[in-house]
Amino acid sequence: MRQQIVTKTGTGSSPVIATDTYISPFNVGFGVVVTGTGTYSVTYSVQHTFDNPQTNPNPTFFSHPTVASITATNAAPNNADGNYAFPVAAIKVIVTAQTGTATATMTLIQAGIA
Length: 114
What we know:
- It is a single chain.
- With 114 residues, the chain is mainly β.
- The chain has a single domain (4-110), classed as Jelly Rolls.
- It is 0% helix and 57% strand.
């Protein structure tokens, strides 16, 4: 898969990035970078679902085990990265709290797909 990028400004979920569950090994890496202006605070998590978001209008999402409820501020940017070694159908970034003006940007790459 070519590099995929989603962003979220304000609270709520980014669009989902669908993955290819038929690639073996699965191997997905991602990073979240928070940028903003002035004084800001953002709490974000990376989440995944096993449901197909194209056929299930209300997929169930689970937080990544290590990139969950991370708070980033202008004084401590607190960017994070992680990976998925097991198949998941889709991945998103969710912002649960925000003050000021900032954006959480997630970049995702899945190995094995050009």
